Amino acid sequence: MPVLLSSKIIESALSRLKTFQHIYIGYSGGVDSHVLLHLCAEIPLLKDKITAVYVHHGLQAEAESWARHCEKTAQILEVGFKLLRVKAVAIRGESPEEAARNARYSALKLLVEENDVLLVAQHRDDQLETVLLQLFRGSGLPGLSGMPESMAFGRGVMLRPLLNVSKPAINAYALAHALDWVEDPSNESNHYDRNFLRNAVIPLLKQRWPVCDKTVARSARHCADAQVLVAKAAEELFLSAVNLMDKTLGISKLQLYQSAQQQLIIRQWFQYLGLKMPAQAFVNRLLSEVVEAREGSDPVLSGQGCLIRRYRDTLYCLESAEPELLQETVWPAGQASVRISNQQTLSCVLSSAGIGRKQWQSGAITVRFRSGGEKISLPGRKGRHELKKLFQEAGLPPWERERMPLVYLNDKLAAVGELWVSADVYNEKAQDCISLYRTSREYD
Questions:
Q1: How many other C-beta atoms can be found within 10 angstroms of the C-beta atom of residue 181?
Q2: Which residue range forms the structural domain that includes residue 289?
Q3: Do 314 and 382 belong to one domain?
Q4: Are 84 and 61 in contact (CB under 8 A)?
Q5: Does the residue 324 lie in any domain?
């Protein structure tokens, strides 16, 4: 017999927070979220802090009537109500389920301010489904850890107070309080992986292992505990191999570690860059085709929305973008910046060292890119220097050399991007010189 639910489970979950200003409740109108909303509304001190939020995905005709049902229920329970409309259009590589979930959470994140909390109604059977799905996808510890009870969300926190509650207990509460909820007919379609598990697989599993939702949830907590330790170790390994200035990895430093440790460092790198976690096959290719490539080669690995390249002893992760259109550009007189390609803008600012301001203002300025054989004289150095050799000295990767803007003043090379200024035009005078800098669409 399921354990009877009470509002104490909500009070216990909220007691972990130091403070909270507003409580948003993800409310779909289904039985789970209705029970969550009812439990919260039963606590008098919370009523003026609660807003039930219905996210309208625009995917089903019934959604309008569900929204009206949710608003009416909120009125009956004397809590606030908010309707959010989103477009849940799946992008490449994304299932309809993922598209709906991502659109829903993106909209909810915009609501949750500092000291706000979002409550969602996932329960123990949802956790079982999540862990099984991750297991079948070949996930590691992060995936097998399932859903956390608490996590940062928006500018506040998301809590799952029912995560350790069984589905029968939720249903029993709904029947005992004569709640009126909506049924989503799409939940009956086994076309979706989660529905197939819920409708066909898990009932069969429970015939053999009646408390498998409980035991799998316990395994998920063990994985989550282990992941905390692994994440700490991964961060320490990562910090020993990363250059935080340019967000690159040192190849020789990476190769000091065994394969499993190298994989941890790579995954931590992707997390640090804010990228989607790479698939195991991609990590394997990165290590074998790029890290282990012979010195002096220029391997390129494309995938996961990025490009992985190496130069000398350094591993670079670059944004995968459309080819850059590089062409000669005239810099209009008096203009502070100029678009020099579809991905770069070059700007000028007053400074105490650089190109003399009077020369800059009176000259004809053009921006070009390398054609080969360019030379420049540098302040404090004798002779004229080939750009190729200067780039090598500076350790600038070949792909960066190609897109480095060359600034010509009256048809003479005056500056190489933000790197060097020609001795012919170089000046030092407080706020009477011009220095250059680039902005790019790539993450920096």
A1: 18
A2: 239-319
A3: no
A4: no
A5: no
